[in-house]
Amino acid sequence: MRNDEDSTEAAGSYWSRLTSTACFPDFGIIVAMTVRANGDSRALEWPEVRIARHMLEYGSSEAQEFLPQSEVARASHWRCPCGCTSFNFVIEGMPLGEKGFYPLDQFLFSDDLNLSGIFVWERDGVLGGVEVFTITAEVSKRLPSPESLRLAVASIKR
User: What is the pLDDT of residue 19?
Assistant: First the structure.
């Protein structure tokens, strides 16, 4: 994921602000997250609905608490500049808070020779989005099937 002035300016009105940095110590990854698009939203595409619900249903009990929000979630028009399939949620009437973000379980998947990870994240009790990241060289250009996911860590401590 690129994080520089040029990529932020190029994204224009789709990016509201750079909000926080996440560290995934299990994988040695640091990621800067841009979390909310300005303006309108779109309906979630079926692969987005399917993968998000699967991760919430089969994740921790804390993740399962976000299932009601997933039923009314829409997606922002934001797209990650790296070309991955990460997307952000818009939950009507529930503004995203200001404090960092918190991954709700991490899953792994692979296609051919590439190992990737994916997680649903929340901020201040509001479902924030789905982040896809690479562990090897190539970022996945398609969301994985729910059946291909493996839980990466039993639980994530705050």
Answer: 34
